[in-house]
Design brief:
The complex is a heterodimer of chains A (469) and B (218). Chain A has 469 residues and is an alpha/beta fold. Chain A is built from 22 helices and twelve strands. In chain A, strands 1-10-7-4-2-3 form a six-stranded parallel sheet, sandwiched between helices. A four-stranded mixed sheet of chain A has the order 8-5-6-9. Chain B is α/β, with parallel strands linked by helices and 218 residues long. Classes of the chains: A alpha/beta (469), B alpha/beta (218).
Chain lengths: 469, 218
């Protein structure tokens, strides 16, 4: 997808004016938050598991070269072909070259955010390969021509009424009913023959297991196995940060991922893949390719964004973000929305065009609180704001205001007198009505809400008064 | 291609410094999961079979369970199941000797799996008490698609195959590349989706119904 984060403010205005979007977001994020809270409350060992998960990820990142080399050797020993790509272009070139060599005309695909990140859809289209999205939500947005709006539930922005209308228009044998179960049945009917006739199956991976060379997929629908088993070639595109030392280490994350993402103890289907079909096997692909993608990850490894590489793409941060819940995923104009997206998008593109994203945050801290690997998202968003300021990307008004405030704050006596005076002025201005309707230079605030009338004196004035008593 | 690999390893080394020795790394990795009991749900006082059945039949996992003393009782239970759900007397059977050798009576058996297969019957290699999951290791007599294409999946689980936690499955398979099956499928109930308004619906692409026959002496 084409990144449009520079139009964030315009997107937000449009999103806030869309009543259907509000219904869709409310229905979904509320349910996801309730389910997660319940399943975490039932998991007494959650705090310890979360701490261990963070430590395992940090350990793996500290020894990334060691584990990647180990993974590569083991995957090759299982018969897979391992490829490396620095950029999205290198990754999609590898994928389309394989499609070409196989003479592929169609590819089924199971949703992966890395695939979205490298633009696999556009690359396959350019190579003349028909792409069939098999995850229900991806199927919906493929038919609608929409980009994803959530990393776990890409069709979160659609109500079931909208999906029903879409399926009636696009499906060969649509259902007459708007019931969600009937819609799911309609998609099952539509996709079933396509699973078995595709030339290539493309997946991502939730985990890479270093000591076995396995890739792991986690789904609820079972579409991963139906995508990767029948075609003669299975291609995996995956970020290098997905690696964990062993299967035993992966279990810590399996328990956290499904709980954080959808409020379930485990997803319905967890599959470990080790190379292509073996002698005598009844089914499975004849060749398996694994494309390991960097795309700015090694850059992040060397700076303040390093903890972001712990991310397991559960989506809990966006489900709990008041900004995301109000504007939805499309407003962010990037592959990754919400809090984690507001950190990743600048890291994967540039500070300037993504300037609004780190500022679309109230710093309420809920994203960090619900993160299963304890990523300090609010701190990182704050650091990004500081970097914007250093890079001269903030407005003249902000820079001037901060400069004046900074000058004053370094002179405590003067600062106290100035704030005392300002408070006095505000009390006079309010004329003891308890609130302020309009105030010079505060138009952006007072247009939507009143300012409260200040208390009797600043904190320091009240403190000094009390200490004298 | 090798240039991309070299560049990635070079960039990692710039960020991380010189790599440490493999033994130190391995020891550190093991220490992180040295006490798995503090990291996973405990269910002391509940045995593996009780926990497995509780989880497998939970609202979230949605399987049904019946019990058999030996494998010989399985064909009769499968026939009962087919009648109960109103299906014809034919099944796709996992081509395992233990299942093939049974007397299937009036139930007609085939070993291929069709795109719209109504019902498949397989033996699970393992089960997991913690989550109510069944586990399949792929191989010549264990096709993967048998687990994913049918609408109904009848799974035979030996009581002795029920392991306590997920880690025990991996311990059973064994560490290292050489001992891995091509596919290890951990299946927890039926195919589901919450992709439309987060409502849980069954039978997305895989089975809509799972019935587990617990065999005391497999």
């Amino acid at each position: 997808m084409k990144q449009t984060s520079e139009h964030f403010k315009a997107h937000v205005t449009a999103a806030l004016a869309d009543p259907t979007l509000k219904i869709a977001l409310n229905r979904t994020t509320t349910l996801l938050r309730e389910r997660r809270a319940q399943v975490i409350a039932d998991f007494g060992e959650y705090a310890a598991a979360r701490e261990a998960a963070q430590k395992i990820k940090d350990h793996t990142l500290d020894n990334l070269a060691h584990y990647l080399a180990m993974f590569e050797a083991n995957a090759v020993a299982s018969g897979a072909q391992v490829h490396w790509a620095r950029t999205p272009k290198e990754a999609t070139d590898i994928v389309t070259a394989i499609c070409k060599a196989e003479g592929a005309r169609s590819a089924t695909r199971v949703k992966s955010m890395l695939g979205e990140e490298i633009g696999i859809g556009e690359a396959l289209a350019a190579a003349g390969v028909e792409r069939i999205e098999t995850d229900l939500a991806e199927h919906i947005i493929q038919l609608a021509g929409d980009p994803p709006s959530h990393i776990v539930m890409p069709a979160m922005h659609k109500t079931h009424e909208q999906v029903a209308e879409l399926f009636r228009e696009k499906h060969a044998q649509p259902s007459n009913s708007d019931e969600i179960a009937a819609l799911v049945e309609s998609a099952r009917r539509e996709l079933r023959p396509k699973f078995l006739n595709a030339d290539i199956g493309i997946s991502g991976a939730n985990f890479l297991i270093a000591d076995t060379g396995s890739i792991v997929t986690v789904t609820n629908e079972g579409n991963a196995e139906l995508t990767t088993t029948p075609p003669k070639t299975h291609i995996v595109t995956v970020g290098i940060e997905k690696i964990v030392p062993s299967m035993a280490h992966a279990t810590v994350f399996l328990r956290l991922l499904s709980r954080a993402a959808i409020g379930a103890e485990i997803t319905q289907y967890t599959t470990f893949y080790n190379g292509p079909k073996r002698a005598g096997d009844a089914d499975g692909p004849e060749t398996m390719h694994i494309v390991l993608v960097d795309n700015h990850r090694t850059e992040m490894l060397g700076q303040f964004l390093r903890p972001m590489l712990r991310c397991i793409r559960c989506g809990a941060c966006m489900n709990h973000c008041p900004v995301y819940a109000a504007v939805g995923g499309h407003a962010y104009g990037a592959v990754y929305p919400g809090p984690m997206g507001s950190v990743l998008t600048p890291a994967m593109s540039d500070l300037k065009s993504t300037k609004d994203l780190p500022n679309a945050c109230t710093l309420n801290g809920r994203c960090n609180e619900v993160c299963p690997v304890n990523i300090p998202l609010p701190d990182m968003l704050r650091s990004l704001r500081a970097r914007q300021h250093q890079a001269g990307l903030t407005s003249g008004m902000t820079r001037g205001g901060l400069a004046v405030w900074g000058w004053l704050a370094r002179r405590p006596g003067l600062y106290r007198r100035a704030t005392g005076l300002a408070m006095f002025a505000m009390r006079v201005w309010s004329m003891n009505r308890g609130r302020i309707r309009r105030f010079p230079m505060a138009g952006n605030w007072t247009r939507h809400r009143d300012l409260p009338q200040p208390e009797l004196g600043t904190f320091m004035q009240q403190y000094n008064r009390r200490s004298r008593k | 291609m090798s240039t991309a690999r070299d560049a990635i390893f070079q960039a990692i080394s710039t960020a991380n410094g010189a790599p440490r020795d493999a033994d130190t790394i391995a020891a550190e990795a093991m220490a992180l999961i040295a006490t798995p009991d503090v990291l996973r749900p405990g269910f002391t006082g509940q045995d593996n079979l009780d926990r497995f059945i509780e989880k497998a039949t939970s609202e979230r996992v949605t399987a049904t369970v019946s019990h058999a003393a030996t494998l010989a009782e399985v064909p009769g239970q499968v026939a009962d199941y087919l009648t109960r759900v109103g299906l014809g007397a034919q099944i796709a059977l996992q081509p395992r000797a233990a299942l093939r050798d049974l007397d299937w009576g009036s139930v007609s058996v085939h070993h291929t799996v069709d795109a719209n297969e109504p019902v498949a019957v397989s033996i699970a290699d393992l089960a997991v008490a913690e989550t109510g999951s069944v586990v399949f290791l792929s191989g010549p007599d264990a096709p993967v698609l048998l687990t994913f294409l049918p609408l109904h999946h009848v799974v035979v689980v030996g009581q002795g195959q029920i392991r306590r936690h997920l880690e025990d499955v991996f311990e059973f398979v064994g560490a290292g590349q050489a001992s891995q099956p091509r596919n290890l499928n951990i299946v927890t109930g039926t195919s589901g989706t919450a992709d439309i308004e987060a409502k849980n619906i069954r039978g997305a692409h895989g089975p809509r119904f799972m019935h587990i026959i617990c065999v005391a002496d497999l």
